[in-house]
Structures are given as structure tokens and as C-alpha cells.
From TrEMBL:
CDD domains: HATPase_MutL-MLH-PMS-like (cd16926), MutL_Trans (cd00782). It comes from Lacibacter sediminis. NCBIfam families: mutl. This is DNA mismatch repair protein MutL. Keywords: DNA damage, DNA repair, Endonuclease, Hydrolase, Nuclease. HAMAP family: DNA_mis_repair. It holds the Pfam family MutL_C. This protein is involved in the repair of mismatches in DNA. It is required for dam-dependent methyl-directed DNA mismatch repair. May act as a 'molecular matchmaker', a protein that promotes the formation of a stable complex between two or more DNA-binding proteins in an ATP-dependent manner without itself being part of a final effector complex. Residues 428-570 form the MutL C-terminal dimerisation domain.
Amino acid sequence: MPDIIQLLPDHIANQIAAGEVIQRPASAVKELLENAVDAGATEIQLIINDAGKQLLQVIDNGGGMSETDARMAFERHATSKIKEIEDLFRIKTMGFRGEALASIAAVAQVEVKTKRAEDTAGTYIEIENSVVKKQEPVATINGTSIAMKNLFFNVPARRNFLKSNAAEMRHIVDEFIRVSMAYPDIFFSLTANGQQMFHLDRGTLKQRIVQLLGNQYNAKLVSVEEQTDYMNIYGFIGKPDTAKKTRGDQYFFVNHRFIKSAYLNHAVAGAFQEMIATDSFPTYVLFIDLDPAQVDINVHPTKQEIKFEDEKIVYAFVQSAVKHALAQFSITPTLDFDLDPTIQHLDAVSKPFTSEQKSQASSSSLYNTFTQKHAAHKIDPQQKSELKHWREFYEPAKTTDDGRQTTVGTSADFSAINQSKIFIPEQEFSQQHNTYILASTAKGMLIIHQQNAHERVLYERYLSAADGKPIAAQRSLFPSTLHLSTADAVLLGELSDELKQLGYLIEPFGKDTFVIQGTPADVEQGNEAMAIELLLEQFKHYTSDLKFSKREKLIRSLAKQHSIKAGRSLTQKEMKQLVEDLFNCAQPNSTSNGFPVYMEIKKDELEKQFGR
């Protein structure tokens, strides 16, 4: 029997390795930008065509490469960053594996132009499928230009799995923001399809944050700076009113490398405890500088997941630094226990309580109601009391001559026992705490959460619209203008077709600006721009859940955004319509997220609770 194990050809091995490093155009953006930073560049340009599928080019004015280095850079495991195993624990550069350029060359057509300041001519190299096709001298400026064309041209299955241009562009923008945020002293620009999206001049960290995240943060950032023997922490946190429903504007950098750490996120959230809602997330851009030997960044090819030697002490320092910043800038609420001196001069404090005044106080009806019967407060049984009809609240419904029921009680049962034949009776609904709708059934009662109920109704309505039954749009008499950050503008462009199907008429109006021409007919008019911003935030809240499609995420976001919120008072007509719509749904008992819509309490369960 012949031998069956054999070595793979280099170009196949490179393609397999590339699948781990270059997952999409944004992966190449990250690697190329970090290489430009490591080259000592002060100006870096990123040029994108067709969301990186056709062209992805990075131009820098860094140190450049010699003719030999330019060719060696595209060999697997070729790097200038480490020479021995101990160097892994002294890494201060962004790249070190020597895999990125080799992976890019394995799945794209690459053109390189590079020149060092001391060289009279530069070097031009063409590489395709890991094979050098051309190498020759070229006249070029100092620095390096790497153009990656036709990504995955030789791996069509991988190319077919790429998302839409808008979706891929959003990932590219995310990676661009992460690298440019870490280096405010470097000029960055991003041009997509001939239009400049970012032009980031060199400046301070605060200026860079405002450039990237939006002018709304200009007056809402609090400085964080703590220096210790073990580590330094600096950066900015947003004031509590900047908290959002998503983690979008949260950035951690360790030695200028963007990282993802749920553990450190929890540390910052703990510092904001009781200052923001439990379902909101604070805004922050925090940098941690510590000895590279205390960090292991060789955990994942993307280098965004790292391990600390002592993560508990890092957690404590981060939380302490944020708390100190909040207190220092008077963000944390304080209690003032100093006594107002004017209180001492009030008659109730300065003058004695005479026997006559005591007698008058004890004979008052207010005094008696609080002291009689040993009760906290005794209700005076007067005929004019509004509580005299309390028994009628529990009496069964009375039927008029025309067959209509007039009180809360009813013999009709619209529990979910037989959802296909639910009957909504003519009854007076009761709303408690402006959140819960109470309704009677033959076997007990229902407690319906109005927001969850409306969310279920809207979810099924939007689902039908997305399946080919568009929702009618109501054009605005005075269209509103919407200004977004560049990242959110890209996201809105990605969702524009689906939003149109759901009744939103939104048109681009210049860079990062849109005009809202119309909204769904059943959505309350007014403040449409704020509604769209909240919709985008809600959509981003679902992006971490890979099991949902883009359409599903959008529908869930719209249903949650437009649902009647808890705390809103409803009329009898509104409550009746909501209950009817709910029990006409295919699945009325839970929201799309699995939260219960109503609770059924049966009569025998109530009687058991009261010992009957």
C-alpha cells in the first residue's frame, strides 16, 4: 500500500493559513495600518474601492524597505520584530508574527512600492498567489505603498461568503477607528470610492476622540489619569448622560493595542454603578501602559485577546482610576449633611410647645386617624368617601339590554388556551403603574405588560412587511435632517433598503448627513432624527448575536424602538386595541427576545393564596 501522507504545496499552505489571519477586507486593513505605524510613519492614507474587494491600499511615509526586505516581507514567518523566544515578552510593536503580508499575498494580487530615505530608487514588486511576478526599480517617494487587489480571487468560496459592500465597509471603518484612535499624533485619512470619509489631523487624544466619535462628546468627556509603579492608566470617560444601550463607544488599549476584555468592561461598569441605567453602557477610551512582560498578546492571530499576568490588580486599578475621575470632576453625587442655620430660628424649633397647643393638636381629626385602632392610618368611614364602592370592583359584570358588559368583571376567557379563537369582550380595562393592563377572564385574570405586548404586535407586523407586504410611508411636511458619525452613516447606508421596505424614506444629503422624507404611517410624528439614532443603537445591540440575520436584527430593533414604553398612560380605547392586536398575533405569549408578555392568574390560585 503506497504512502498517503504528503507535504502540501506552499501556495495551498499559505491559503489555509491566510484563512485564520485574513478573514475579510477589514482584517487586511488592520494588519496594513499596524505595519505602517510600526514603520514610524507620521502620515498614513487608506484607500478603498468596492469595500476592499477590488482595491485596498495603504500609503505611509515611514522608513520604507530595501529591495531584499521588500521581497522577504512576504515570506511566511518573516519578521523584523522578534529574533528569539524571549522577545515575545518584550514586544512593543503592533505586529510580530510575520504572517500578515504572506497571508495577504496568498489570497490577493499585491503591488508594493517602497523606498528608504538613503536609497536613490525604490523597489516595485508584484505578487500573485504567493508567487513574485515582477520585481524592478521604480521612482517613488519615501515610505511604502501596498495595494491589495481582487481579494480572494483564487478562493471564490471565501469571496462568496463576504457580506454586502455596506456591511464590509462598516467593519473596515471599525478597524480604521481602532488604529487611528490609538495614535492621535499620526495623520490618518480614509477614502472610499473616491470620497474622503475621514481626514484626521494630528492633535491631542481628546481631539482625535471628538473627530472619530462626533462633536457631541466635546463637552462630555472626563479625563482619567493615574500613574502607579505597576501600570499607568489614562484617557477619557463619558459623563453618565452619554451612556448608550450598546457597547459601541468603548475602547480599551493596552500598550496602544486595541483589545477586547469583558473583564475590564465590568470594571468600568462597576465604577458607574447607580449612575447609569442597568441596561446602559458607559462611553470610554482608556489606555493602559505596563511592562510587556506582564502581558501575553500571543493568544489569538488578531491579537485583540490578551492575558494579564495579574488581571485582578489591573481590574482594581482600572475601576479605582475611573471612580477617582468621576469624583474629581464632581460627577459622583455627594450628600451634604451640614445643617441649615435658618432652621434653628423657625417657630417649631425655637418656641416651646404649650399645653394649649398640645390639646389642640391631639383633638384634631388628623391626629385621631393616626392614633386610633393602633393603625398606621385609619380611614374615616364617611358616606362621601370615594372608597365606599370598593365592593363593586369585585362584583361580576352586569349585562345591559343590548348584551354589552359594563364592568371590569367578565365571563369571557381570552387566555392563550385557544389562541385561534380568542374573544375580546367589551369590558373596562384597568392600567396599573402606567405599565400593566389588567383584564378579567372566566378562570381568573390576566396581567399584560403593555410594552412587551406592543413589541410583539410590532414585531409580527414588521415581519410581514419584510416578507413582501411593505408598510405604508407617511411623508413629512417638513423633512428633518440627520447628522451621524461616519461609522453610523455607513451602518445606515447598509440598512437603507430594508428601512424603505418598513416605511422609512431616508435619502443621503452630503457627507454623513441624511434627510428623513417619511416614516411609517403608524409611527408618531416628531423627532424622527432621534428615533433613527436610537434605532441604530438598538441594532448595534444585536450585532454580537451571530444567529440573527441582518433583517431579523433590524425588525427586532424597530419593534423595541417603537413599542409603547412602560410608564405611559393609555386610554380605554388604546388598551382595548392593544389587547385585540396582541391576541391576533401568531405567538402572543412572548416577545421576540423571549420575555413574557402576560401572566395568567387563575381564580383557584388566588383563593388558595387567601386560604379559601
